[in-house]
Amino acid sequence: MNKIFLTLSLALMTVFAASAQDVTGKWKTIDDETGEAKSIVEIYKQNGKVYGKIVEILNPAKKNAVCDKCPGADKGKPIEGLVILKGLEKDGDEYNDGTIMDPLNGKVYKSYIKLNGANKLDVRGYVGFSLLGRTQTWSRVN
């Protein structure tokens, strides 16, 4: 009986550890220039790739903002509900080969994301080479 309990306990701990090390879930975005929390982005998997959608804007004055400068079908859409991370693929410890869009200026950048511990996510947007860009660190929302 003790062996069964021990085996089940180890299996459950493995499942919880694996889920805690996943990029999916809700993340609080932090403005890298002001340090203020801006939004909540939900990262999810679809067809083997990772996407991120803004599910909440934290500044009440900007709740109804639309993406006037966004390209294509996203132009004029509400920022809340907008998919800003698209098509990231797992590559070792990080997810790359995708894009991130800045809804404030409508610019689309190459992107990669990587866990920085269990509750921090480094999100990098860049042009050309990954050295030419900037990184934000997002915090997991429980």
Automatic annotation (TrEMBL):
Domain DUF2147 residues, every copy: 25-140
Pfam families named among the record's database cross-references: DUF2147
Annotated signal peptide: 1-20
InterPro entries: DUF2147 (IPR019223)
Keyword line: Signal
Stored PANTHER family: BLL5882 PROTEIN, BLR1215 PROTEIN
Name of the molecule in the record: DUF2147 domain-containing protein
